[in-house]
Design goal:
Elements: E1 2-4, E2 7-9, H1 15-18, H2 27-37, H3 50-63, H4 67-84, H5 87-94, H6 107-110
Antiparallel strand pairs: 1-2
Helix pairs in contact: 4-5
């Protein structure tokens, strides 16, 4: 089993698909990496030699921010926005940020419902 950037890559899948298991490597980036390495699209991970795996690992480490470093960078960006107390930071602090509905739900983020006087008809 190949291990790249701290992630075990599935061996039966195509290299292009297997690389997307790494956080920070999407389909487009995986295609770019395979093009740099000169792999055909149908090449499988179990067909790679040890030297090719080492070369893949070096390309990813040198040119891309992945896994722990990327997660840390994103977390620091969000923390910076929250510390600045800008609009985006306040949204991160108070509301869900992944496109969920907030009109009626989102009680875990918003807290217990507060009654409003005179609202009842």
């Amino acid at each position: 089993m190949a291990r790249i950037a701290g992630v075990n890559i599935p061996t039966a899948k195509r290299v292009e698909i297997a690389l997307t298991y790494i956080h920070g490597v999407g389909p487009r980036t995986a295609r770019e990496i395979c093009a740099k390495m000169g792999f055909p699209r149908e090449r499988r991970v179990h067909e790679l030699t040890d030297s090719e795996i080492v070369q893949l690992r070096e390309i990813i480490d040198a040119n891309y921010t992945v896994e722990g470093d990327l997660r840390r960078q994103v977390a620091m960006n969000i923390k910076r926005l929250m510390d600045l107390a800008c609009y985006r930071g306040l949204r991160h602090r108070r509301l869900p940020v992944r496109g969920q509905r907030t009109h009626t739900n989102a009680r875990t983020r918003k807290g217990k419902a507060k009654p409003i006087a005179g609202k009842k008809k």
